[in-house]
Amino acid sequence: MMKGMPNEQDWKFSGSAGMGKCPIDYQPIACNGVDVRRLMYTMPTSFYKGKDILEATFAVRVAHIYNATPEDEPVRLYRVGGKNFGISSSTDWGNTDTLWDSHIMTVDKAVSPVSCSSAPNLRFESGKSGALTQELQAAATGSWTQMTFGLRAAGEGDLHEWKRMCGNAVLEVTYNRPPAKVSMKEMWTSPGGVCATSTGAVRSQHVDELPKLLVIPHDPDHSRDEAEPVKVRFRVEWTDKNGKEQQYEKDTSYSSPTGATFEHKIKVPKGKPAIPENGKVYWSAAVYDKATWGPWSWEGDSAVRCEFVMDRNVPGKPDVDSKEFPEDKSGELGVGETGTFTFSPNLGDKFDNDVSRYSYDFTKDTAAPKNITPSSPTAPVSVQFTPPAIGTVVLEVTSYDAANNPSAPAVYSFVVKEGKSVAGQWNLGDDPLPSAEGRHVKDESDNSRAATVGAGVSFTTKDGPGGTADRAAHLDGTAGAYLSTDSPVVDTAKGFSVSAWVRPTALDKDGVVVSQDGAGEPGFTLGYDAVAKNWSFGVPANDVESLGEWRATVTTSATCKDSTTKPVCPNEWVHLTGTYDPANGQLQLYVNGELKKTVARQSTWSARGALQIGRSVAKYGYSRNFTGDIAEVRAYDRLTPAAEIKSMLTVKPARKGYWPLDTVASGTSPDLVGGRALTLGGGATLFQQKPEEVVEGPYPLVTSMGEQGAVPGGDLVLADNGYAATSSAPVSADGSFTVAARVRVAAESDTTDQTLFALTGTKTNRFLVRYTKYTADNPYGHWELVVPGSDNTAATALTIPDDQAGDPTLDGGQHIAVVYDGLTKRLRLYVDGQLADADNASKHKIGYWAAGGGLQIGRAKSGTGWADHLSGEVDDIRIYTGAADAVAVGWMAERLAQPDL
């Protein structure tokens, strides 16, 4: 802005612009009538809502100075205007001169000029208690969406203070989110059990000694693999024998909050009255991360505290022990591996000489508490448990005497590590390798159990479950239709799991997908039962000549792609998993990740022969050869929990479109994969970085790398209702698909939503992703995915909101990905590689309908027209058939181009 031209401005100036008294002696023409210049920058601040601002720095690049030799010349930083004030093409000296009343700080130093692509050389560093930090904290507390900063010379009449500043200023903010409130489900006492209250489902426990208090803290700024230490403050409250309320607080030492347990053994400090017999004791906890305290565990709507009753007449807690899962630490086993826990009376307790039963409950087990009876009042008992997930597990054990009086619950916590990796995996997507014994396929696991290939197996001619870029093996149903290892892979007497992608082409005979040889019977079979006309998972009662079989057979039908209902759909891919859970003595059969059948297995034995793919052993040789296609066979020598089985469903995506947006010709930008160019329309342009010059201003959101480093790239720039579109749909979106792009929103809007991309049908959008407008009730926008249930303008739509804090207006923008798994009908939205609305991800299901229109960038279909245009930049658009997993989405989110992904 210019004092001498108060109604003019240099809006969104390119490169650098002057600040201070315009040097008319150097530039008499350019400075004619200008007088004094000031600079203003509007910065987005909605990302910081609800955060604690620790430090803030405003940094800018000084490109030119008045003096030949740098000298100390003061520059002042201001906050211009109030809440959410922003600059625009109409902002000038005349309408902002009176708004420069909030001086933040002044920097008085000699600055050597740099280019606008270099690191900032003038920094207004506020520190932990400086004015800039306080301004940002006020914005975070007040839910500001933006803040405008101004730079001016301290002496606006002094030519020596003139400088040229670059437009790409930086606001650097160090912030912290307070630790989360400790969940009462992750608070317990030992003895005693999970947090009990006077009003909750778990009522206050009676304990015979002052217990140990235990909690699991969480800090939202810390991931599982990277965490700064936190500490926990425990507060203990009681009423003494004289009716006076007492309390004390105790802090733990600092430790990592990655699922660890923090504890405190209650001990009344000296000088405090003792806790009386039969009186209630209340306790709570809060977490500190070296910057901010989180809320107390009782804060919120319920406002209740955990409690227990000190009662030395209650029978003592039982003893609990486990070799595989030792108390308070990680043991030998992990997820899906079965361990043994032994309960025994506390023989030093006079009340524990007549135990009639034990009641026990594992927190990671969804089942109700179970009971077990000892052979005698003093005899120990043992139970088995197979943990379904990593992290801390709490086991509560209560003993009961002959009169059914409960003891104080024993609390035994232990840490479950990751389960063992796959014992054998044969993807069957590549051509087999030659060997002395014939053809063989590689085992992708660490165990290198190659599988010999029979003559009735062919490769790379059939599309796999992931589409054309994914391959499978075809078995022709003859005696040569098999693959075989030379040794066993799993112990069938212990916990194990097997899975495979299967596409049957003949249903007139049995077809075994996976089995393992015994002496005369298979240790198990997973495959198709022609008599039951459905999928089955079976285990013979014994080896050699079995008298029967324990078998889980699916009894429900499936809806096929041709809209018919059949027990098994021919020529369609299905994912099968069979598991044996030794802790519960159960066989389970999963189809497409859903548990279909559970049956008891009442006898166990070990099949010590080879693992077979496509057939099973019998007394007279091999039989039940499979006819159809098989891919991704996996075997685990442990139970695979339900959540892990669901993760196996992610099929390999096949890329159908990729627009790097680096070139444009005749108004179109090419598709490097499918040949569907993006046609630019309206106010859409393509910014192209040129190699021979330093580019100042916008930069490509995604950078490509060559042999000499970064190479020039480009962005799709959308303004004035600009858009880009393909002429036809890259994918029909009635099956699995993945769509992704990186986007920077020019500015949040209070009048319209802004669409990143949409795939259109005849009347509405198959799906769209948009950044919502902000309102008085919603002072900052967010990304959301909208999916109508049918191709009808009145159809009910599923909306998935992004519940993560992020700012799409920052220089790098944000990466958005939509993933749809057609097998489970589940839909996911990822923002910067993180799953949005993660707590409800399993609920987001949609049905089939095909998109008939093209892919739209920057607009959405609205009736017979278009609406919700985006203003900003878009880069690196890609679309696939198949559902990408979280790892692949993470790769897509990189700002370094992944042209081969």
UniProtKB/TrEMBL annotation:
Residues 318-331 have a biased composition (Basic and acidic residues). This is LamG domain-containing protein. It comes from the Bacteria. It holds the Pfam family Laminin_G_3. Residues 494-642, 735-887 form the LamG-like jellyroll fold domain. GO terms for biological process: immune response. Residues 318-338 are annotated as: Disordered. SUPFAM superfamilies: Concanavalin A-like lectins/glucanases. Keywords: Disulfide bond, Signal.
